[in-house]
Amino acid sequence: MNYDTRYPSVADLKKLAKKRIPNFAFDYVDGGIDDEHGKRKNREAWHKVEITPRYLKDVTDADTTTRIFGYDYALPIGVPPIGLGNMMWPGAEIALAKAAQKHNVPYILSTFSTTKLEDIAQAAPDVCWFQLYVPQKVEVMKHLLGRVKEAGYKTLVITLDIPVGAKRNRELKNGLKLPFSLTPRIIWQSMIHPTWAMQTLAHGQPDFVNVLQYKDGPNFELATFITNFAMNGVTRERIEMIRSMWDGPLILKGVQFDQDFRDALDIGIDGVVISNHGGRQLDAAPASADTLRTLPAEIGAKMTVMVDSGIRTGMDVVRARALGAKMTFSGRSFFWGMGGMGAAGAEQVIEIYRDEISRTLKQIGCGSYLEMDKTWLK
Ligand SMILES: Cc1cc2nc3c(=O)[nH]c(=O)nc-3n(C[C@H](O)[C@H](O)[C@H](O)COP(=O)(O)O)c2cc1C
Q1: Neighbouring-strand partners of residue 135
Q2: C-alpha–C-alpha distance, residues 125 and 154, integer Å
Q3: Which residues, listed in sequence order, are joined to residue 368 by a DSSP beta bridge?
Q4: DSSP code, position 177
Q5: Are 97 and 147 spatial neighbours (Cβ–Cβ below 8 Å)?
Q6: 277 CA distance to ligand 1 centroid (A)?
Q7: Within 10 A of 369 (CB to CB), how many other CB atoms are there?
């Protein structure tokens, strides 16, 4: 196996991350909204997808590649956009981007990343996508998109599901702000995690380096900054404007409502990431596996369908394919890997997924990820 078998699963990496990094950083990644039922529901919904194995065939090799937007990726799992990624582990974003390039999986950089978009494009020239929180001001949007294009990104992902800043109770209790407010709680948690603290000191405090130039006010609470910067509800007109400016693949992330999918098709969107933001925005939102299962048939036929929220194992990735997705993403898997193992966590997570996806395909008698379809559900 090409990974450290002391931590053979994403669940093990989560436990390790909890020990190695301060609580405020762990809570930032792990937390959901309200009583966090939506987060649990995401997991439960994947567990409910049953796959019937087929044994009377010889599947000694399983092809894990997937083809989207005319490009072959080695695995159907990628890194979704995660704001403030370097807080989990200093240098996490660049380490993940390099690992994604090496192993040929997609890496989506968040507008609110803590590494410059130009540096990520250099580290992952073939596999980097850019995620846009649509800025309220059109001139800011045009400026940002100009930089994204100039840096070489070809695929753009627009996130729709933050019309309002989320009230995440763990973040509020931890007093999470940028720059960090040096409250006794934050100082104490940093002191009892000296490796993280030393690395953070060496790298400098994480900051929203891609959008700093557009911010007003010196000190801000995360949710407030995000809602002040981004549009409160992205309109169809704005998406049409972006469509007319962006000639590469354009993807909407966070779509859940049938009519929204149809509008996306109508606007000429190339793909969707079905997502409820990992249960971080609306506790009552349907689980992603359920939205995928009930997707209108014409959407699956005409667009590239991808999914995230609650994916933690290679088995889940295969389940997603049986429900119709061609690519999956998992935010917490990758960032628990980083919190647990530092830079080495990036390849650890990729290799765990590679092993689990390949074994699952062989176990169910399917020689290729792309060959899989809904008939395996029965
Ligand atoms: C800590 C954290 C930060 C996130 N930041 C962003 C972001 O900046 N942009 C975005 O579109 N989604 C963001 N998301 C949502 C992820 O892209 C993805 O949809 C989610 O992590 C999937 O759920 P999972 O973590 O259960 O796999 C974030 C998620 C987490 C956990």
Answers
A1: 230
A2: 10
A3: 63
A4: E
A5: no
A6: 5
A7: 22
Position in ligand 1 atom list of the atom nearest CA 113: 8
Q: Does ligand 1 come within 6 angstroms of the Cβ of 311?
A: yes
Average pLDDT of the residues in 66-91: 96
How far away, in angstroms, is 80 Cα from ligand 1 center? 6
> pLDDT band at 217, cuts 50/70/90?
low
- The single residue listed with the structure tokens 């699956």 is 300
Nearest protein Cα to ligand 1, atom 8: 83
Q: Hey, where are the domains in the chain? A: 10-369
Helix (H) or strand (E) holding 19: helix 10-20
- Looking at the CA of residue 30, tell me the nearest atom of ligand 1: 31
Phi, psi for residue 310 in degrees, rounded to 5 = 90, 5
- pLDDT higher than threshold 70 for residue 96: yes
Which residue, judged by its Cα, is nearest atom 9 of ligand 1?
Answer: 81
Report the helix count and the strand count for the chain, using DSSP H and E: 17, 12
Compute the average pLDDT of residues 67-74: 98
Q: Which residues contact 13 (CB under 8 A, 6 or more apart)?
A: 7, 333, 336, 337, 339, 340, 341, 345, 348, 349
* Centre of ligand 1 from the C-alpha of residue 30, in Å: 10
Report the predicted TM-score, pTM, of the whole model to 2 decimal places. 0.96
Domain spanning 10-369: which superfamily? Aldolase class I (3.20.20.70)
47 is catalytic: no
Facing residues of 72 across strands? 67
